[in-house]
Amino acid sequence: MIFLATFFVLSAVWPSALSVTRYSIEEEMESGSVVANLATDLGLEPGGLAQREVKLDIFHSKKYLDVNKKTGELYIVEKMDRENLCLAKTTCFLKLDVIIESPLRIFNIELGITDINDNAPHFRRDRVELDVSESATPGERFSLPNGVDPDVGKNTIKTYKLSVSEHFTIEIQTGSDGTQYVDLVLTKSLDREEKAVHNLILTAVDGGVPVRSGTANIIVRVQDTNDNPPQFDRQTYTINMTENSPIGSLVMKLNATDLDEGLNSEIVYSFTLYTSEKTQDVFALNPNTGELTVKGTIDYEDMTFYEMHIEARDKGTHPLLGQCKVVVHVTDMNDNYPEITIQSVKNTVDENIPVGSVIALVGLSDRDTGDNGNVSLSIHQHMPFILNKSSDRPLHYKLIVSEPLDRESVPEYDIILIVRDAGTPPLSDNETITVHLLDVNDNAPQFPLSFYNIRVEENNAPGALISSLSAFDPDLHENQYLVYFILEREIANTSMSMLFSINPENGNLYALKTFDYGPCRVHILRKFTQIK
Ligand SMILES: *[C@@H]1O[C@H](CO)[C@@H](O)[C@H](O)[C@H]1NC(C)=O
Ligand SMILES: *[C@@H]1O[C@H](CO)[C@@H](O)[C@H](O)[C@H]1NC(C)=O
Ligand SMILES: *[C@@H]1O[C@H](CO)[C@@H](O)[C@H](O)[C@H]1NC(C)=O
Ligand SMILES: *[C@@H]1O[C@H](CO)[C@@H](O)[C@H](O)[C@H]1NC(C)=O
Ligand SMILES: *[C@@H]1O[C@H](CO)[C@@H](O)[C@H](O)[C@H]1NC(C)=O
Ligand SMILES: *[C@@H]1O[C@H](CO)[C@@H](O)[C@H](O)[C@H]1NC(C)=O
Questions:
Q1: Which of 331, 362, 380 is the last residue of a domain?
Q2: Which pLDDT does position 285 carry in this prediction?
Q3: Closest ligand 1 atom to Cα of 331
């Protein structure tokens, strides 16, 4: 299509070249398109050109056009791109001379080339990355690159649009030279933890028909500010730990999380002042890993639970912190032996001590708790003693005589008391109580025989030793010392003491008279009584 806008200024006057014939075409017309009929427009006879020499001289340019000598038509040889020919100039034309010889005539032609919207706006960089601080306040502006559209006039960029965003909008400013500048404006505060990257699309739109546009990706990376404190997932962690856990054992690994990034989310753990020195002697906290380990001896009998207050602090320039509490309940182990305490004891008692008498009072203790501290007391092997609980708290037993005792059978007892707890494995201890029995004169002296038959030779000399009698007493000491004497009795009207005498100390029996054979008598020494 040709918008024929031929301005016939002046009829060409030979040989001068003062008149200028103007044509206007749109850029990008296909080759072969006819721009004008020179023969008609310049007042030449059609067909008259055929015999003449026609030269087309285009200034400073390629040979985009030519003249058909038969028809006199000026036609396009090669497509013209206004932007290529004239860059950003708002008006664009080619100057050409049509030189016809014999006779020589020169026609000046100005071929205006009008813009069509053949270029879409574009951006030199179609991806722009912007770093915006999380703490940026609404209203802050960030420059965006301009779009480029080589077309001119209404075909060049008219406006810009931004993809829908909760946080951003754009504002366009026009410089004094008409250049548009695009600013990205923050409309709502950013939260990196909610959205770290905003992908926006900036569209440059031209005013042509049809409208053309070009886009650039605007990637807004939100720069972290330390606006989140480290957080533990619980306020209190409760842990069971057996006492005597080996040094280095892991109690737990603390893990606070911080939604920020980089140093703002790197955490250092420490005990706060509310954690006692004593507790800090028992537990160690790795500041970097949050590992809580055993450092000292955990003794249930010393502490049944420990409470630690721990804080997590991030490494931001203005650090934020979070806190938690760790409570360690110590589980008792059977690590303490039960103990026997002899509170009072009678180590020597009379052998005739009555059954039921208390020999000793025994206290029991075990520092462990529960089954580990549940103790029972027993007597090793059978003994004539029993135990009777006398009080529960503190635990006391009485050691009581359960059977009559007899020094002459068993003069002393080694009573082994065994205490045992109910832990697994059970622990036991023992204590020996030695009881000596004191002699009581509870045994009568005894002759081996109750009846002695002694033969005496006839005509014995008076005073002769006729026998030696010996009695035995199992008692001790003075209870054992014997004195022999003869019971007064008459034999045939004669007093016994007239016939016999006995050595009180050794029981030697002497005849005081001479006995005749005839009346062969048997003298019975029936009984000796003891002297106390
Ligand atoms: C700790 O021990 C108590 C009983 O002593 C038990 O009820 C509790 O469940 C235990 N807790 C853990 C975390 O094992
Ligand atoms: C801490 O917890 C977070 C989530 O709760 C988890 O992703 C991370 O791996 C944990 N870190 C450690 C060292 O346990
Ligand atoms: C101690 O153990 C005995 C049995 O061995 C049991 O009968 C008693 O209830 C236990 N006492 C405690 C306090 O556990
Ligand atoms: C044990 O003691 C209780 C009172 O404490 C008493 O009633 C009971 O008879 C005693 N048992 C023996 C065998 O002594
Ligand atoms: C008493 O305890 C000792 C060690 O303390 C042990 O060698 C002995 O076997 C125990 N005696 C009894 C009867 O348990
Ligand atoms: C003992 O004496 C009494 C009287 O004094 C006399 O009757 C008796 O016969 C005497 N017995 C002997 C055995 O001599």
A1: 331
A2: 97
A3: 5
